[in-house]
Amino acid sequence: MQETSQNQTAGQKQGEALRFTSGSFSLSGFLHLPDAKNPPIIIGSHGLLSDADSAKQVDLANKMLACGVGFFRFHHRGSGDSEGSLAETSLETRVEDMVAAWEMLSMRKDLGRPFGLFGSSMGGATCIGAWSAIRPAATFLVAPLIKGRVLTQQAPADMAAILEESGLKESFFTENLNFDLTERIPAMRNVFVVHGTEDKVVPVEEGHMVYELAAEPKRFIAFEGGDHRISHPGHQKILLKRAFDFFEEKLTLKARTCGM
């Protein structure tokens, strides 16, 4: 099921606010559409405690319009104004949401191929988990989470802050996020990974592991001194530029090859 409404904001081209169904939940999102016929689309997946309005996704979505690539960012269940409870989140529910978004977009006659995936932190885990179902032409991962248990290895003060911010119980991290995606990564190709060397939430070793295990072609950038959110303005600028160049290369070239 899909519901749409038109929306126009300063600095953005015309797009659509959408609702679609994942499982028994109604989720909300926004589709940034370029002035192009049947554009390829990137689907974004946000972090565990974030939502579809994250600056990374909004900035990249608006930038991609310049090369005729659309972007769909959505709130996973329990986030933003999507239905569901954050306390019931798991890797499986996040993957189900992303695949449902892809299936909804795939049914539209005004959108083209191929698809790209963009994910940050838990969103990176979601992209890895959904990769075999979607088979994207390009996947860009920011501080991707491979093993859910690393989230329980925070310093006590940091974990206390996470629990206070989220309202979640500590058992949530050991029960709902008990996953290991290591065996899924070798099937992936056309992957670009970025990670901060001083990431205190998801260690940079997780990013290195994705890069090492993924099939060629693949790329990796480690931001020296970068944190989990890649919050340094200089790092953000580089991230945005590299993501734009990567998706422009992989998606528009593929679209031209397919005659779209």
What value does the Rg take, in angstroms?
17 Å
Shape: globular
Multimeric status of the protein:
single chain
Distance between the termini: 26 Å
Structural class: alpha/beta
Low-confidence stretches: 1-13, 256-260
Q: What is the N-to-C succession of helices and strands?
A: EEEEHEHEHEHHEHEH
Number of helices: 7
What does this structure look like?
This protein has a nine-stranded mixed sheet, sandwiched between helices. It starts with a strand and ends with a helix. Helix 6 (204-213) links the parallel strand 8 and strand 9 (218-223). The chain has helices spanning 55-64, 91-106, 122-134, 156-166, 170-175, 204-213, 233-257, and strands at residues 2-7, 15-22, 25-32, 41-45, 70-74, 115-120, 138-142, 191-196, 218-223. The model is unreliable at 1-13 and 256-260 (pLDDT under 50). It is 35% helix and 21% strand. The protein is globular and about 50 Å long. Helix 2 (91-106) packs across helix 3. By secondary structure, the protein is an alpha/beta fold. The chain contains seven helices and nine strands.
Gist?
With 260 residues, the chain is α/β, with parallel strands linked by helices. It has helices at residues 55-64, 91-106, 122-134, 156-166, 170-175, 204-213, 233-257; strands at 2-7, 15-22, 25-32, 41-45, 70-74, 115-120, 138-142, 191-196, 218-223.
Topology:
Blueprint: E1 2-7, E2 15-22, E3 25-32, E4 41-45, H1 55-64, E5 70-74, H2 91-106, E6 115-120, H3 122-134, E7 138-142, H4 156-166, H5 170-175, E8 191-196, H6 204-213, E9 218-223, H7 233-257
Parallel strand pairs: 4-5, 4-6, 6-7, 7-8, 8-9
Antiparallel strand pairs: 1-2, 2-3, 3-5
